[in-house]
Amino acid sequence: MRARSVLSALVSLFALTVAACGGSAGSSGGSQTGQDLVIGVPMSITGVQAKEGGLAKQGYDLWLDWINAQGGVNANGTKHKVVLKYEDDQSKPDISAQLTTKLITQDKAQLLLGPYGSATTASDAVVAEKNGIPMVEANGAAQAIFNNGYRYTFGVLSPANKYLQGVIDMAATLNPKPSTMAMLSADDSFSLEVAKAAQEYATAKGFNVVYTDRYPNGSTNLSGLVANAKAKNPEMLLNSGHLAEAVAINKAAKDLRLDAKLYAYSVGPSTPDFVNSLGTDSHYVYGGSQWTPQVKYKPSFYLSVPDYVAAYKKKYATSDDPDYHVAESTAACLALQKAIENAGSLKPDKVRDALASLDVITFFGRIKFDSRGINTYKPMVVEQIQTDGKHHTVFPPDVADAKPQYPTPTWSSR
Amino acid sequence: MTLLVQQLVLGLLIGGVYVAVGIGFSLVWGVLNIVNLAHGGLVIIGAYLTWLLFSAFKIDPFLSIPIVAAALFGIGYVLQRLLINRVIRAPIFFTLLLTFGVNLVIINVLLLLFKSDFRSVTPSYSGSGLSLGGVQLPYIRVAGLAVALLLAGAVALFLARSRVGGAIQAVGADRDAAQLVGVNLRHVYALTFGIGAACAGVAGGLISTAQAITPSAGEPYTLQAFVVVILGGLGRVSATVVGGLLFGVVETLAQTMVPGLGAGWANAIAFAILVVVLAVRPRGLMGRPV
Question: Which residues form the signal peptide (chain A) (predicted)?
Answer without folding.
Answer: 1-20
